[in-house]
C-alpha cells in the first residue's frame, strides 16, 4: 500500500498557508476600510487647516517662481538682492516639486525647475564641477565666491535632478544634463576618502 502521509501533510500545510493568507487579506481590507472611514470623519474637522496650508504652499511656490531670472537662475530675494546661491536655489526648486495629499505639482513648477537645472548644469560644467555664489551686478550675473561646502552643493544638485526625473517619469533632457551629473559624481568621488566625504578640496573636515 502506498504511503500518502506525506501528501496529507503537504495538503495540511497548504491549507494552513491559505488560511493565513486569507486572514491577512481580511485584516488588510478591514484596516483599509477603517482608514478610509477615519479620513472621512476627520475631513471636515481639518478642512480649514488644510485649505490654509494649501494656500500657503501655493503662495510660497509663486514667490519662488517670481524670483527666477531670465536664464533660469533662482535668486535668494529677487534681483534687488541679486544673489544666487545654488545650494539654497536647489532646495527652493525641491520645494516646487514637493507635493502632498491634495496639493498637486503644476506644470509651471516643473518648467521652473527644468529651467533652473539647465542654468545650474551650465554653471557646473563651466566651473569644472564646483559652483560658486553669484551676484547680479550691472546687468550681469557674476561669480563672487566659492561654495563653502562643495559636497553639500553637489548633493543638493543631484537630489534635485533625481527628484525631477522621478516625478516626470521621463529622461527628457537627460542628454544635455548627463555631463553635469557625471561631473558632479566624479567630483564627489574625488572628495571621498574611504567612507568619509570632505567638505571641499581646501577643507578636509
TrEMBL record:
Q: What is this protein called?
A: Uncharacterized protein
| Keyword line | Membrane, Transmembrane, Transmembrane helix
Top-level taxon: Bacteria
Membrane-crossing ranges are 12-34
Amino acid at each position: 500500500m502506498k504511503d500518502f502521509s506525506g501528501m496529507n501533510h503537504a495538503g495540511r500545510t497548504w491549507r494552513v498557508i491559505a488560511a493565513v493568507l486569507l486572514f491577512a487579506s481580511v485584516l488588510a481590507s478591514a484596516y483599509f476600510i477603517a482608514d478610509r472611514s477615519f479620513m472621512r470623519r476627520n475631513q471636515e474637522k481639518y478642512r480649514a487647516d488644510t485649505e490654509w496650508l494649501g494656500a500657503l504652499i501655493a503662495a510660497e511656490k509663486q514667490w519662488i517662481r517670481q524670483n527666477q531670472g531670465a536664464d533660469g537662475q533662482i535668486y535668494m530675494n529677487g534681483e534687488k538682492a541679486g544673489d544666487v546661491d545654488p545650494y539654497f536655489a536647489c532646495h527652493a526648486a525641491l520645494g516646487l516639486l514637493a507635493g502632498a495629499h491634495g496639493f498637486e505639482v503644476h506644470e509651471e513648477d516643473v518648467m521652473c525647475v527644468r529651467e533652473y537645472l539647465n542654468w545650474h548644469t551650465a554653471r557646473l560644467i563651466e566651473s569644472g564641477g564646483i559652483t560658486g555664489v553669484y551676484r547680479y551686478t550691472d546687468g550681469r550675473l557674476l561669480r563672487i565666491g566659492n561654495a563653502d561646502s562643495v559636497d553639500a552643493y553637489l548633493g543638493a544638485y543631484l537630489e534635485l535632478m533625481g527628484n525631477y526625473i522621478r516625478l516626470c517619469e521621463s529622461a527628457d533632457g537627460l542628454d544635455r544634463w548627463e555631463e553635469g551629473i557625471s561631473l558632479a559624481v566624479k567630483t564627489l568621488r574625488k572628495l571621498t576618502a574611504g567612507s568619509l566625504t570632505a567638505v571641499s578640496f581646501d577643507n578636509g573636515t
